[in-house]
Amino acid sequence: MTSDQNSNLSLFFEPRSIAVFGSMREPLGEAITAMRNMRDFGFQGRLYPISRSSAEVLGTRTYPTVDAVNEPIDLALVITPPPTVLPIIEQCGRKRIRAVIIATEGFAETGPDGAGLQRQLVETAHGFGMRLLGPNTLGVLNTAHGLVTDPYPIGKNKPRAGGVSYCAQTGFLTFGVHPIKDLGQPISKICDFGNKCDVNEVDILPYLADDPSTDVICMHLEDIRDGQRFGQVAKEVVARKPVLVLKPGRTEAGAKAASSHTGSLAGDDVIYENALKQAGVIRLRTWREYWDIPKALSLQPLAKGNRVAIITATGGAGVMLTDAAAEAGLIPATFTPATRTHLHTLSPRWGSNPVDVGPQMSLRDNPFAVYSEVVPVVLSDPNVDCLAVVCHFGSPIVKVLTELAPTIAKISKPVTVFGYGIDLADMQESGRNIEALGLPVYLDLETAVKALGVGAAYSQIRARLGVDGR
Amino acid sequence: MTSDQNSNLSLFFEPRSIAVFGSMREPLGEAITAMRNMRDFGFQGRLYPISRSSAEVLGTRTYPTVDAVNEPIDLALVITPPPTVLPIIEQCGRKRIRAVIIATEGFAETGPDGAGLQRQLVETAHGFGMRLLGPNTLGVLNTAHGLVTDPYPIGKNKPRAGGVSYCAQTGFLTFGVHPIKDLGQPISKICDFGNKCDVNEVDILPYLADDPSTDVICMHLEDIRDGQRFGQVAKEVVARKPVLVLKPGRTEAGAKAASSHTGSLAGDDVIYENALKQAGVIRLRTWREYWDIPKALSLQPLAKGNRVAIITATGGAGVMLTDAAAEAGLIPATFTPATRTHLHTLSPRWGSNPVDVGPQMSLRDNPFAVYSEVVPVVLSDPNVDCLAVVCHFGSPIVKVLTELAPTIAKISKPVTVFGYGIDLADMQESGRNIEALGLPVYLDLETAVKALGVGAAYSQIRARLGVDGR
Fold it and tell me: SS3 for B21?
């Protein structure tokens, strides 16, 4: 990756100006929808809608061709029928546009004819020194710039700004079809590779490694085009930031489905497994892990080791979390004698791990205050590297955790919170409030400790690479 | 299990009258809270609050002692301090009450003294021919009778009546701390074993097997008190209804935590694994599987085999589901030539499995109508045993599935639905509406096919036992 290429990549994520090609027809024309999404997200750059049919779109002046625009243009977004795309690429090339997102469907994913047309796009683009993202993509999102190129209406789904950047080989794992706003996901950038005709995982890794607003990189890859190069690049990036990968095709049936989805050779999973491990990339297994684990690494500090403590208001959950923690590579922390003594003075039944605060809660006037007593004691224990807290979600625990959050942050060890309750809306509201404190929230039991396990695994990888803690 | 014991069990779940012992203090006295929960759930039987301090509780006359009640009493609910429980058991015994739920905490779970007190309770109860549930339990729930004994306020959490019965060795996996109403869980009965001093898994299995409103039995067991007897009983029950078990202690750390939680010997997991398999019991692994898989077996017919079809609006999800299906013991269905031809006439890109309807949707005026075309063709294919449908949740798909539901029911093969979207509240609302059609809904990708896999596994178990389809 030369710095020139890297600056090309920044045109995709931080464009100051965008030419938009496609249907401006109300209400759901793809181009006008993308423009409306950007307006809703608060895009600060200039938009140049290219249209001969109307003088103005959403209050913005249109241009009959891109040549008619007198200012320089950083990025083009193309959502026009397949046969029109190549001529548009040529126009953009002449206008010295260096980055083009082709949202249009109907290329390599449809068969040999589409693949041929797609190859032409790439050859033409490279002749102009232009990079292409897609085709068959929802494009990109950048919370810091209010940028989003989705041709479907998603204006209400602007996530909060945060440190996780996602790249996926399907719109399904991007901003298009996940309630990233309602779930409070802390997002920096999202990219849908689409058919990955040009810009791919090897290009984007160094860009995200250099990006100051990205803490954690999470990718969905159905194939890896150049395994050796990916391994080299990933290894360098992993020394700086965690790289998590969801790679389907674990099973023979899945690999076959992947190959018919993106027309790519999914390859032998064992080879991928070893190559990813070799590069220090951590592999995720499920849809839920993909969405819910990266945020823990972004919001919380890194663990120094893999010894986990569990504080729970229900003994049954403590047992299940202990199982899940062991399966995630963690071991139960053995508290120091000082911690055991301290806990014992707070309640004669406390001292071992997990700490079941439930029985004490039913004796107190202010049941949730027990968390204020126990969390600092346990988290400060030198034998504890990370902590999972289990609690009933509702306003009382939000209040307690709001008071505790500065203490937790000061101790500087990773904490996750698993919440339960009987009122779903109330639980989700509490979850958002707690996560806004910087504490990653889980409404799924096993994922709460799996996230700690992935954090501990990344610490071990850094140690192996001889890199100090973040 | 004699029929006499079985009728004792029915006193716990179908009591016509209940004596309630415990604090009647407003607002949160445990006994008055339990009574209020029952009023909110619509309990039809008679309640006899036992209290000397007030003449009336929630409009119901109180009695100073249980002897003062002149009518027969089926069940006693005891939520009083530990030292008072034994004398109450004796009073209940003299009143010929044959079933007592001891909600009170502070027995075997607190150590040797508590364990001794607990043994006394059992000996006394058995002397009267009385069965005990608990102590340290939230008790029971029965949707058909409006029965719920929880001493914490959960009046708003009454689930809809359905065919799944749950029993757990922790309140955490019962009605107390899960939004079973908001999630639309179809519930028949729920039981919290608590410390399991008397009534246990071996007692309850035959009762639920005989219960006409229970289709599926799902249990959380931290230990199994009499493995051999459990195996015999479970095997008989499995021939009639599926029995699913979440058994923590899979890891050494988890087993140790279980033993300190319930004071029981968790034992070697391999032995449990084999014993459960031998009995035809299907083992669940996670919190989410426990809550989300049984409903699919209750709402849908049994599959005749393990060949799964996938219809998806996003190719990326199709690949991930194929992986998850293979890991759940399913194999991708190969459509018959007739089906392939039929699909091909609907769209030239259709014919193989998974069927990606996404590209067709973007060409249609009514995108969601493609499901009406494709679902019946695929589900009717003789090579297809079960089907997972992936769709964007919102009112359009609810409308289509409402129209399709009778056709799906007629074809009589199991279907699950995985839904995605960008508006969480909207997705949950759509999910409830679709599940009300009898189609089990998942907002978690892998669980949607794992549920089909568990159904197929139960079919295979029935075949092995020589039992016909349900």
Answer: strand
Kindly report the number of other CB atoms within 10 A of residue B258's CB atom. Answer: 28
A323 vs chain B: nearest CA distance in angstroms?
A: 4
Q: Helices in B42-163 by DSSP H: which ranges? A: 82-94, 112-127
Q: Is B150 exposed, middle or buried (0-12, 13-18, 19+ CB in 10 A)?
A: buried
* pLDDT tens digits for range B134-180: 999 999 999 999 999 999 999 999 999 999 999 999 999 999 899 99
State the pLDDT at residue B362.
Answer: 83
Please state, in angstroms and rounded to a whole number, the distance separating the CA atoms of residues B172 and A418: 13
Q: How far apart are CA A43 and CA A46, in angstroms?
A: 8
Contact, A73 vs A85, CB < 8 A? no
Closest Cα of chain A to B250: distance in Å?
6
Q: Which amino acid is at A425?
A: A
Smallest Cβ–Cβ distance between B172 and the set A314, A322, A332 belongs to: A314
ipTM for the whole complex: 0.96
Residue A180, token pair as written in the block: 């990233």
Q: Does the distance separating the beta carbons of A427 and B424 come in below 8 Å?
A: no
Categorize the per-residue pLDDT at A265 as very low, low, confident or very high, splitting at 50, 70 and 90: low
User: How would you classify the pairing of strands A140-142 and A186-192?
Assistant: antiparallel
R_g of chain B, CA atoms, integer Å: 25
Across the interface, whether the CB atoms of A314 and B171 are under 8 A apart is answered: yes
Cross-strand pairs, A248: none
Q: Which residue of B has its CA nearest to A151?
A: B362
Chain A partners within 8 Å of B187 (Cβ): none
Q: Which chain A residues are within 8 Å of B172, Cβ to Cβ?
A: 314-317, 420
| Residue A194 main-chain phi, psi, to 5 deg | 60, -135
Q: Which two tokens stand for residue B3?
A: 């029929």
Chain A: residue whose CA lies nearest to B390: A172
Query: Which is nearest to A65 in space by CA: A45, A39, A84, A37?
Result: A84
A177 contacts in chain B (CB < 8 Å): 314, 392, 420-422
* B172: nearest CB among A317, A324, A428: A317
CA distance B329 to B45: 46
Return d(Cα A93, Cα A107) in angstroms, integer. Answer: 20
Whether the bond between A135 and the residue before it is cis, its omega within 30 degrees of 0, is yes
Place of tokens 């973007």: B362
Phi and psi at residue B389, to the nearest 5°: -110, 130
Token representation of residue B119? 């043994």
CA distance A76 to chain B (A): 22
Task: Name the nearest CA neighbour of A326 among B364, B252, B270, B114.
Answer: B252
Chain A residues with CB under 8 Å of B169 CB are 316
- Extract the tokens encoding B263: 């004071």
- For tokens 């609302």, what's the residue? B429
Residues from chain B that touch A316, judged by Cβ atoms under 8 A, are 168-173, 220, 222, 261
Judge contact between A195 and A137, C-beta under 8 A: yes
B422 and B392 Cβ atoms separated by less than 8 Å: no
Q: Give the single-character DSSP code of B63.
A: B
State the DSSP string of B328-359: TT-EE----HHHHHHHHHH-TT--SSSEE-HH
Is the distance from CB of B15 to CB of B53 less than 8 angstroms?
no
Q: Is the dihedral of CA B362, B364, B365, B367 positive or negative?
A: negative
- Give the Cα separation of B152 and B35 in Å (integer): 10
Residues B253, B158: Cα–Cα separation, whole Å: 35
Residues A269, A223 contacting (CB under 8 angstroms): no
User: 0.90 cut: is pTM over it?
Assistant: yes
Place of tokens 């445990």: B30
Token pair in block for residue A85: 């795309």
H/E stretch holding B201: helix B201-210
Range from A273-277, B101-105, B118-122, B297-301 carrying the lowest mean pLDDT: A273-277
